[in-house]
């Protein structure tokens, strides 16, 4: 709930802190872990184009790849993770000074 409030208030740093803390409190085999990893990835990625730390997008890419390894093929969580992963890769590519063709 606090993460959603931070998102609505436009507090990207608070959102990242919230989901990073939640992820740290979960066991590696928790059923909630992929959802929290996804939400943290979204928060990190949203902070990156707004001048967030350069490592944000790399961490988001790592998190989305992790979600893809456990999400059911064809399900919406997998599709959403793949979409966000693609956007992160494109943003990282552009930030490095390359222009997509």
Written overview of the protein:
The chain is mainly α. It is 71% helix and 0% strand. The chain is built from five helices and no strands. The termini are far apart. The mean pLDDT is 85. It comes from Streptomyces flavalbus.
Using only C-alpha atoms, the radius of gyration works out to: 14 Å
Number of domains: 1
CATH fourth-tier homologous superfamily? Tetratricopeptide repeat domain
Given as residue ranges, the uncertain stretches (5+ residues, pLDDT < 50) are none
Shape: globular
> Helix count, per DSSP?
5
Q: Please report which band the strand proportion falls in: under 5%, 5-15%, 15-25%, 25-35%, 35-45% or over 45%.
A: under 5%
The number of distinct β-strands equals 0
Question: By helix and strand content, what is the structural category?
Answer: mainly alpha
**What is the highest CATH level, the class?**
Mainly Alpha
Give the helix proportion (percent range): over 70%
Q: Major beta sheet, specifics?
A: none
In whole angstroms, how far apart are the ends? 40 Å
CATH architectural arrangement: Alpha Horseshoe
CATH topology: Serine Threonine Protein Phosphatase 5, Tetratricopeptide repeat
Organism: Streptomyces flavalbus
Protein name: Tetratricopeptide repeat protein
């Amino acid at each position: 709930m606090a993460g959603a409030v931070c998102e609505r208030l436009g507090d990207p740093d608070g959102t990242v802190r919230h989901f990073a803390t939640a992820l740290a409190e979960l066991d590696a085999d928790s059923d909630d872990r992929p959802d929290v990893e996804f939400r943290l990835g979204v928060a990190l990625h949203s902070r990156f184009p707004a001048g967030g730390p350069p490592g944000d997008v790399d961490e988001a890419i790592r998190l989305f790849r992790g979600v893809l390894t456990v999400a059911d093929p064809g399900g919406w969580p997998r599709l959403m993770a793949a979409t966000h992963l693609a956007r992160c890769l494109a943003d990282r590519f552009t930030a490095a000074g390359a222009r997509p063709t």
